[in-house]
Amino acid sequence: MSLTRSKNDTIQADKRQPTPGQPRLRSWLLSWEIYPILLVTGFLCLYRINTTEFNTDQALIFSMARDAIRYGLLPMTSNASSLGISNPPGVIYILLLPALFSANPVWAAVQQGLFTTVAVLLAYFFVRRYYGRLAGIVSALLYATAASTIHYGRFIWQQNMMSPFVVLFMFTLFWGVVDRRRGWLAPAVLLLGLLVQLHESTALLVVPLLVAIALAAKTIRWRDLALSAILLFIIYAPYLLWEIHTNFADVHTLLAPAKVHLSNNHAIISSQAIDFYRLFLSPYGQQPTIPGSVINVVIPWISRLRAIMLLLVLCGAATAILLLLRLPARGTVKNKEDEESSRRGGIRRWWTNFRATPAAGGLLLLLIWQIVPLLVLSRPTIILQPHYLIFLMPGPYILIGLFIAKVVEFFRQ
Fold it and tell me: Is 62:116 a contact under the CB 8 Å cutoff?
């Protein structure tokens, strides 16, 4: 079996014949590389999990889940956010399962480690499905061994739980845009609603969702819109009741940024988002202050990987753009009248051709997922934190996997 996907399979995704999902999944599970990926990710996320970080936020959200189990309560909010508003209760419902079986929060940390492991596995399936086996292996291994993945993937916190749902969200968008399947909109809206509950920064994912709706509009039915609204109402009903009960106090807080202690009070141009993005690509976090730390021994060697990883991401983005621009020509101009009409309808024809090339739509979604949030956050009205960018992962590693797979394919030809 070839590790790379041929040019026709990658670019002309609209020419692929649909195959049953179950045989494909069975063949993937029989692939040898899955098990080293799972072993590495599971070890890094679960080894000595009893030493995981456990501070005020972790104690508060787990105790709320435990109290909901013990006293039969319906969580309407979770803890307070750094912006001074009450967070939606999504994280509490996720923690109900470990809280149901034990009052020991270490099992919630185990669940978090499993969430991260599942996210890496889903990333492998996603990339292999649309960009080939080699790209999937590279992306999954880079994602699994990233310092940021290990750091955020080992302790309970709202935004740390986003990783598997982000990959599933992109999966649903690709089902609609690339595979042209029906019924993708409701799961996508549901996942986006859950992600916003875990952290408000994921509201920026509405941009790729709107692009997917525009590209795959013909796959959307009226019942998909109705189901999306119903599912969104269900997961937000407790929080809406709380807002009604408090006369929408959180909304008033958000509309008065001068009162928020983390606000800049006015938008400024900042490179902080780019710096945090590069931090996620770093092979290590902050340099240890302990002189005898083993990390200090290898930092002179691995520090070069910071620049290399950023360069690889830029090469991956350039590869995606080049593939995106290679749209197939559809139709020919037969006479002068046709030429004039084609000039007038050039934009419309380009849009029609673009929508008729599903693989190009998938590449556009990848680029929008990575670029638009960074552009928006480059002019923040609040003080940014590194965890605001967790929802962009594993995008950089997908771009790197795509670039490496294309380079290997080029030299094999």
Answer: no
Secondary structure (3-state) at 263: strand
**Total number of domains constituting the chain:** 1
Q: Residue 392 and residue 399: Cα distance in Å, rounded?
A: 12
Please report whether residue 291 resides in a domain.
Answer: no
Per-residue pLDDT at 339:
54
Which range among 52-56, 134-138, 151-155, 281-285 shows the weakest confidence by mean pLDDT? 281-285
**Cα–chain center distance at 66:** 29
Q: Torsions phi, psi of 86, nearest 5? A: -80, 130
Q: Is residue 132 part of a domain?
A: yes
Q: Does 340 fall in a domain?
A: no
Asked if 388 and 199 touch (Cβ cutoff 8 Å), the reply is yes
Does 109 score more than 50 pLDDT? yes
Contacts of 215 (CB under 8 A, 6+ apart): 176, 177, 354, 355, 361, 364
Residue 11: pLDDT over 70: no
Domain around 195: 7-286+296-330+347-412
Predicted TM-score (pTM) of this structure? 0.88
